[in-house]
Structures are given as C-alpha cells and as structure tokens.
Amino acid sequence: MKKPRERSTVDGYGVQILIINGEVQTFLSQKKFYIQNIGKGGFRFISDVSFELEDRVQVLLRFPDGFSQEVLGRICYSEDFDDNQKAYGFSVIEGFYSLHAAVA
Q1: Which of 5, 9, 60, 96 is deepest in the core (most CB within 10 A)?
Q2: C-alpha to C-alpha distance for 65 and 73, rounded to whole angstroms
Q3: What is the pLDDT of residues 4-13, one digit of tens each?
Q4: Is 7-103 assigned to CATH 2.40.10.220?
C-alpha cells in the first residue's frame, strides 16, 4: 500500500534559479518564481523562462516563514500553463528539505 505524499499549496513559497547544468545564472538568480505546490520529493513551479527536460538545476527555495535552503534537482516535466508561461516539475536530487519545518 502506498503512503500518501505530503504536499502543500501554501502561499509564500518561491524559488530562485542559481545554477543550470553547471552554469551560474546571474539574471535568473535575481528573479523569484512562484511555486504552485511542494512536497518532500520536489515541487511544481511556474516560469516564463524555458527549461529543458533533465536540466540539472541548483535552486534557492524560499519558504513562507523566511527560511531558505539550496537544493539540487532536475526538471522532470513541463506543461503549458498559459500563453506566456509553463509549469515545470522539479525533482530533488540532493539537499533534502523539511516540508514540515517550512509550514509549521
């Protein structure tokens, strides 16, 4: 039997892109992307910037309580969101974060 995965849709989550495939992202690190939902294994975020499937991305997660943490992951899916944006799935590779601590 599969255990249900804990997910949150609390407002206030954000992500900044620091490194893509080993290249520092000066412009993107200044931008904050909206996280639509988040769980222990990853999150879904909305972007007007294009990413490729399997891109390795180092991000800075920003939680509603002001806590932030760097996490390494990969882009695991993309879906059209609206005319100018896509929704991307981010799967954590390294840098496990505690969702419980973030929403407490």
Answers
A1: 60
A2: 22
A3: 444 444 577 8
A4: yes
